[in-house]
Design brief:
The complex is a heterodimer. By secondary structure, chain A is α/β, with parallel strands linked by helices. Chain A has six helices and ten strands. Chain A has a single domain, classed as 3-Layer(aba) Sandwich (Rossmann fold). Helix content of chain B is 78%, strand content 0%. The chains are: A alpha/beta, B mainly alpha. At the A-B interface, helix 2, strand 6 and helix 3 of A face helix 8 of B.
């Protein structure tokens, strides 16, 4: 499902790489990436999402991020840790825009369960951080992606929403969607069965050994 | 109140003068460096004399003061919109009078260079018994300071969206109009960057009216080809903030299957609408001054130049200093090309360069931290 080769991420004006992944191949499933603050989790997720440039190659379901960018971006969805959207747009306008671009289905059930439908027609300028997070999750589940990247998906969510999200991850996983999740909070293993856990240490992505 | 003044001094006043050091050096050179040391006083006295005797010259100078005052005020409102300026909203807890006092002090401190110069101007005018002139200048400066102070006060105490924004929102709701991707950047300009837009339009339309209305009878096409690009360069800041917006609040769009051409087209649509006032002004007021070919190629070159600025903003990784340097270089190259290969070929070169730079830097862009 995901294949990474010779991955190297540096920030502009910095010689030192933030993260190096010589080779990684992941089968479909749910993956949890752990690591200290500043270890490079978000940089990896953003690179896979196509938000930031990097050295090396990344493929999802055989689609290369550079050579087949349009198809790749349909196959990979992303939700940021602290999402921000233009205040003059409503959630509905953003959802329509994402839906038109990504195609596929809207996650109506998830939106209903998260309570997103109650505020979707308001401008994002009046959203709280929790509402903003719920909107970003609705956008991340829009379309028919092969892989959903969730960066710290549980922060800013209330307890009920955390449970709803974990159930949604499990349900979408059964439908064939894969997930890469970075989180400091442990996942509820009763709800979400992770395929593997990785740790970023000393700028390297390593499988966690129990 | 002393603490509030201290904080505002550090966050707004000092940072304004530090980040505009180059701008002030340029004006210091312009006012005191281009004449011999022995002639500085007589040079400035003759400038002041021209202001006192010519209402038109005074109007032009006052426009310059207004543009500088808007620059100062925009710096403050921009600061309030940034993440590290959010804490300043706690100032709204101060009583009305204390807030007004502090914001007037900030506004005065930022406007100080103009204020000092106009003090000398008033002294010279009073020595010549030009009392009405002095009163006009003093009133003008008081209004400038009141303007700055009011805008800062309103920005900090804004409880709800403006009446105009409310009206637009109601209309959109009633007509069930939804903003599409191509309108996102334009909507940003007309909601969050209204003041910058108004200042740029004021400047460029004033410049154009000098050529087409004031000197319409003795229109100089060569001089126009040198000064018209100034109207375009005046948009450089607006282009920069729009690219910045696209790479912050619309940054997640990079995860959408949007081709770079579609993103470029969104920028182009925005620039076409933004340049509409100048284009219409030139078409309406031309009256045979410029041949049809040049008249049509100039607005198209302006659009290509704004696309070039967009590419440059990406190429410079949104570093303002590098960006302005490249803008300056592009202005010189434009003037040379217009003379060397003519207007249509310059337009083609600009458009081709703009698309090449945009394509080369859009996907590899990453803002420096």
């Amino acid at each position: 499902m995901l294949s990474i080769r010779n991955f190297n991420k540096r920030y502009p004006a910095s010689e030192m790489p933030v993260l190096e992944v010589p080779s990684l191949s992941l089968a479909p499933g749910i993956y949890w990436i752990k690591g200290e603050n500043g270890s490079g989790k978000t940089s990896l997720i953003k690179s896979i999402a196509g938000l930031v440039p990097f050295e090396g190659s990344i493929e999802v379901t055989g689609l290369d991020i550079r050579l087949q960018r349009m198809a790749y971006c349909k196959a990979v969805n992303y939700a940021a840790a602290e999402p921000q959207y233009p205040g003059f747009l409503t959630g509905a306008e953003l959802l329509d825009f994402y839906h038109a671009a990504k195609g596929g289905n809207l996650p109506l059930q998830l939106m209903e369960a998260l309570g997103t439908t109650h505020f979707i027609n308001s401008k994002t300028a009046v959203y709280s951080s929790g509402m903003m997070k719920k909107l970003s999750l609705a956008l991340a589940f829009t379309g028919e992606p092969a892989l959903i990247l969730l960066d710290e998906p549980f922060i800013a969510l209330d307890i009920a929403a955390v449970e709803v999200l974990q159930k949604a991850i499990a349900a979408f996983s059964e439908k064939g969607f894969s997930f890469i999740i970075t989180s400091h909070q442990p996942l509820d293993q009763q709800l979400v069965h992770t395929t593997a856990t990785f740790v970023i240490k000393d700028r390297l992505l390593l499988p966690e050994t129990v | 109140m002393k603490q509030a003044a201290n904080i505002l001094n550090k966050v707004m006043v000092r940072q304004f003068y530090t980040s505009n050091a180059g701008f002030f050096l340029f004006f210091l050179f312009f006012f005191f460096g281009i004449v011999q040391a022995g002639h500085i006083v007589s040079y400035h006295l003759s400038l002041m004399q021209a202001m006192i005797t010519s209402p038109l010259f005074l109007f032009v100078v006052m426009t310059g003061w207004l543009l500088y005052n808007i620059k100062c005020t925009l710096f403050c409102t921009d600061k309030l919109q940034q993440d590290d300026g959010q804490f300043l909203f706690t100032l709204s807890a101060l009583p009305f009078l204390k807030q007004v006092t502090v914001f007037t002090a900030v506004s005065t401190a930022l406007y100080l260079p103009v204020l000092l110069y106009s003090c000398f101007l008033v002294a010279v005018a009073l020595a010549q018994k030009a009392v009405t002139f002095s009163v006009v200048v003093i009133l003008c400066q008081l209004l400038m300071i009141a303007f700055g102070s009011t805008v800062i006060y309103r920005s900090i105490n804004k409880r709800s969206e403006s009446r105009l924004a409310g009206l637009v929102a109601t209309c959109r709701k009633k007509l069930q109009l939804k903003l599409g991707y191509h309108a996102f950047i334009m909507a940003y300009v007309f909601t969050d960057r209204k003041l910058v837009f108004a200042v740029v339009k004021l400047f460029s339309l004033l410049l154009l009216s000098m050529f087409f209305i004031r000197n319409g009878d003795s229109f100089d096409a060569d001089l126009f080809s040198i000064f018209y690009p100034f109207c375009i360069i005046a948009h450089a800041r607006l282009v920069f903030t729009c690219v910045e917006f696209n790479e912050t609040l619309l940054h997640y769009n990079r995860n959408l299957p949007l081709h770079w051409l579609k993103v470029a087209l969104t920028f182009l649509v925005t620039w076409i609408f933004i340049l509409l006032p100048e284009t219409l002004f030139m078409l309406i007021n031309n009256q045979g001054n410029l041949p049809a070919g040049i008249l049509l190629s100039q607005p198209l070159t302006a659009m290509a130049m704004l696309m070039l600025f967009t590419g440059i903003a990406y190429a410079s990784a949104l570093d303002m200093e590098r960006y302005l340097l490249f803008i300056f270089v592009s202005y010189i190259v434009l003037l040379i090309l217009q003379k060397a290969i003519g207007y249509p070929a310059t337009l083609v070169c600009c458009a081709a360069m703009a698309m090449m730079i945009f394509k080369a830097h859009y996907y590899s862009f990453e803002k420096e931290k």
